Amino acid sequence: MYDVFSPKKYYHKARSQAIKELRLNKEKSVLNVPVGTGQNFEYFQQYLRNSGLIVGVDISRGMLGKAQNKIDQSQWDNIKLLNQDVTNLGSSLVNEFLEENSLKGFDAILCDLGLSGFPQWKEVIDILVSMLSTNGRIAIMDWYIVRGNFVRWIGKGEVNRPIGQHIETRVADFQVDSSFNRGGVFVASGSKIHESKKT
């Protein structure tokens, strides 16, 4: 059902741009939250070529089951799925996973079509940025108010939040592109600010 309400074709341009902004190449590590049914996997793999590491997190076991089906069908072996609440990312499974894999942080993080549904959206952004490695890249793809009634209906979400303004204060090289789907979808991106450059 999710793939029906969130069709690949509708989000293709925005999703392609968001993942392009991550500046991926082989052997990079990527965190995707919420991973949903794994629609981003084939986009990631265009750059990673089944190398590096993709970690997908979602609170829905049903979504993760569909994502696992995509992994199995394509025989990808660089993807790990974790069943976890995105708002608790900074304190449990994902951090343990980083430690187990000797990673100090992710090279890239994509949060797509999720922040509109998180009550603690500012905290989620802050947590995600903190989980980036030095100079790591983050991209957020989400809805604008033009789709507000539909988004609220299917996900009880809000799309009139200043997501772009908040992330702009947390990253360097900030960019936002709101040209997708007649202004209904935006892509915001940036790099983690080096500790020595924080004021």
TrEMBL record:
This is UbiE6. Transmembrane segments: none annotated. GO terms for molecular function: methyltransferase activity. Keywords: Methyltransferase, Transferase. GO terms for biological process: methylation. InterPro entries: Methyltranfer_dom (IPR025714), SAM-dependent_MTases_sf (IPR029063). Residues 26-144 form the Methyltransferase domain. Signal peptide: none annotated. Its EC number is 2.1.1.-. It comes from Desulforapulum autotrophicum (strain ATCC 43914 / DSM 3382 / VKM B-1955 / HRM2) (Desulfobacterium autotrophicum).
